[in-house]
């Protein structure tokens, strides 16, 4: 897990303690997780459902340490290790819809940037903090947010296909030796690799992982929890795309022939359905090629809570 690297990030005493405790393990066997944008570019479109999780104990004040993506106005999805390893996470702040971390929510009703405290979380009961298996978690906000669109989750086990392009997006460091994280959201294009190819590099990977690789491109420290996104086939937009994975772990960042190992969301839709009602999240089969919610879904959707909204398209919503 590169304990010495992450201890720089010094991001929170709990992680520092965790890494210190794991240092003997991490140096005694080859498997070393990087809780992980390398080789990418600045994002120019606002992704309204993009979440930045902030550590209030960082010496300079609230500091981004993990990503996530909003499923509705109250719940977002992230990696379990972004939550479980932080004992005080339910007191943390999150920012939603920011492009630049220097943006401040001025409580302007027209603002596209929102913030909230975390109220509670529900992580997968079988999350393995040693090998990052079942690395998925749902987090509930203390204050619902009024955003223009929510993430659309993949529900097709054949998508994305091996070789298909997907994108990481986050505020993580730009290489594994960096000591600062960028202010502006970045994204990077990579490709899906087969589980067989992934296992050739990472015997700890499982069928519940979605692995990706491209030369010189990867997620890195503080990108954990963000989405692995397939851009919209019509518009090319990430905001209107499909989220198939959750950034989980890898060995270093962008190392040769070392795929990134991400949580494959489609493998966890059964668990998701046990935690949230079907009306509380949008699946790819609910929308058409341009991102519009299909009319039959709107007609048959279960009732939402007063504060929840159902997106009709990225940039639009209904209800709430």
UniProtKB/TrEMBL annotation:
InterPro entries: Peptidase_S1_PA (IPR009003), Peptidase_S1_PA_chymotrypsin (IPR043504), Peptidase_S1A (IPR001314), Trypsin_dom (IPR001254), TRYPSIN_HIS (IPR018114). It holds the Pfam family Trypsin. PANTHER family: ACROSIN-RELATED, HYALIN. GO terms for biological process: proteolysis. CDD domains: Tryp_SPc. It comes from the Eukaryota. Residues 37-277 form the Peptidase S1 domain. Residues 1-26 form the signal peptide. This is Peptidase S1 domain-containing protein. GO terms for molecular function: serine-type endopeptidase activity. SMART domains: Tryp_SPc. Keywords: Disulfide bond, Signal.
């Amino acid at each position: 897990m590169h304990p010495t690297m992450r201890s720089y990030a010094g991001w929170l005493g709990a992680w520092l303690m965790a890494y210190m405790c794991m240092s003997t393990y991490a140096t005694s066997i080859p498997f070393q997780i990087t809780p992980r944008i390398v080789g990418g570019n600045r994002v120019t479109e606002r992704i309204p459902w993009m979440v930045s999780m902030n550590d209030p104990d960082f010496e300079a004040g609230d500091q981004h340490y993990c990503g996530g993506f909003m499923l509705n106005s109250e719940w977002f999805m992230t990696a379990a290790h972004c939550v479980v390893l932080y004992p005080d996470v339910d007191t943390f702040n999150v920012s939603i819809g920011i492009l630049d971390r220097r943006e401040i929510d001025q409580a302007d009703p027209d603002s596209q940037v929102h913030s909230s405290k975390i109220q509670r979380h529900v992580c997968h009961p079988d999350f393995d903090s040693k090998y990052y298996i079942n690395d998925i978690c749902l987090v509930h906000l203390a204050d619902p947010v009024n955003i223009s669109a929510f993430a659309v989750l993949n529900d097709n086990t054949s998508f994305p296909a091996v070789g298909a392009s997907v994108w990481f997006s986050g505020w993580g460091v730009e290489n594994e030796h960096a000591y600062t994280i960028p202010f502006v959201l970045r994204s990077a294009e990579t490709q899906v690799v087969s589980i067989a190819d992934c296992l050739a590099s990472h015997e700890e990977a499982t069928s519940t992982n979605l692995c990706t690789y491209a030369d010189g491109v990867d997620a890195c420290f503080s990108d954990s929890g963000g989405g692995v996104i397939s851009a919209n086939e019509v518009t090319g937009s990430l905001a209107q795309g499909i989220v198939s994975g959750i950034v989980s772990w890898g060995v270093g960042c962008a190392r040769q022939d070392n795929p990134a190992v991400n949580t494959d969301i489609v493998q966890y839709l059964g668990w998701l359905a046990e935690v949230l009602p079907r009306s509380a999240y949008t699946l790819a089969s609910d929308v058409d090629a341009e991102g519009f919610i299909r009319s039959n879904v709107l007609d048959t959707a279960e009732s939402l809570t007063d504060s929840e909204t159902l997106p009709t398209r990225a940039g639009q919503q209904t209800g709430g």
